[in-house]
Design brief:
14 helices; alpha/beta; about 55% helix; globular; 5-stranded parallel sheet
């Protein structure tokens, strides 16, 4: 089982959380925000295990019965609340609220992990807010999101917000090598040069670099997303239209490209907020205001796909909005 000390980078976040765990003062609600691949789920599992740990010394101890159950994802007091489809409904959150008033089965606390907290509808968030205002003393909520701004301000004000950023490249490379050994893939499967190249391509994001290494090459939809961002930032209207033409291939491809584009824009926004990492990344030349506008555009485009929008019109809409955003 990973411990907090095993989590790479994010020294200030780890220091704050370590102090909380050491004193036993785990907040009732913690928001973990950051781009996909930065380890939100890994950190949530560490915190969930720490919350139910019945061992002594540094927690999670990894040795007690609660830690072992947590490591196997079968602890009765740790619940993962996942959306059914694109959204997490108010009924699902009301069920969580009801369950939260049931005492823990065997651990000191009950933990509810929301891997996609921003999938909650506004009504669902308001339902969660009701229990955050006066939570049972034994309950912990872990809310994972790429941006805390997607959650209601009233939820954020009642939570401890931890913003994750990419670690240093050498530390990230060492972590990938360790993960490869643990999974018995053998660190030798990838050379140090390959690992560093993958990290450079993915802005030192460990999760995405691993995906790239495992795929053997950058996925086509990710390359397409990079090209769209690059042309939006500095290309002509025609070059942007050519880059966005890949959206018109089919709906599955369009969704993959838009999802990758959304992740890259969100990561750029995190970096614009001073989260660190390399200065050369997709979207670096765009302003924060422009990136916010682009994020909204991509979300609208994804909604358009759900409504069976014409792919050619959707591509044109995205290009027009991106060019307008690039001028902000």
């Amino acid at each position: 089982m990973d411990k907090l000390s095993d989590f790479v980078g994010n020294a200030s976040v780890k220091a704050a959380l370590s102090g909380m765990l050491r004193t036993g003062r785990i907040p009732h609600a913690v928001i973990l925000e950051g781009a996909g691949g930065l380890g939100k789920t890994t950190l949530a599992r560490i915190l969930a295990a720490a919350a139910v740990c019945s061992g002594e010394g540094d927690i999670p101890c990894g040795q007690c019965g609660n830690c072992r159950l947590a490591a196997e994802d079968i602890h009765p007091d740790i619940t993962f609340v996942r959306p059914a489809g694109q959204t997490l409904s108010v009924d699902a959150v009301r069920q969580v609220r009801q369950d939260a008033y049931t005492l823990p089965h065997q651990a000191p606390r009950r933990v509810f992990v929301f891997p996609a907290a921003d999938a909650m509808t506004e009504q669902a968030q308001n339902a969660l807010l009701k229990i955050l205002e006066e939570p049972p003393e034994y309950v912990v909520f872990l809310l994972l999101t790429e941006s805390a701004a997607r959650l209601l301000s009233t939820i954020r004000s009642r939570s401890t917000v931890c913003t994750l950023s990419p670690p240093g490249r050498e530390a990230a490379a060492a972590r990938i090598e360790a993960l490869a050994r643990r999974q018995e893939e053998g660190a030798a499967a990838w050379s140090k040069e390959q690992i560093l190249a993958a990290l450079e391509a993915e802005g030192d994001n460990i999760g995405r670099a691993l995906q790239l290494l495992q795929a053997g090459e950058r996925p086509a939809e990710e390359q397409a997303a990079d090209a769209i961002l690059e042309q939006a930032a500095g290309g002509t209207d025609l070059e942007l239209l050519k880059a966005a033409y890949t959206l018109e291939k089919d709906r599955k491809t369009a969704r993959l490209i838009l999802s990758s584009l959304l992740c890259k824009i969100q990561e750029a926004l995190v970096r614009k907020s001073g989260a660190g990492g390399t200065a050369d990344y997709p979207g670096a030349r765009l302003s924060r205001g422009g990136l916010v506008k682009m994020e909204e555009t991509v979300r609208n485009a994804l909604k358009g796909l759900d409504r069976n929008a014409n792919l050619s019109l959707l591509s044109g809409y995205l290009c027009a909005c991106f060019k307008e955003a690039a001028g902000l």
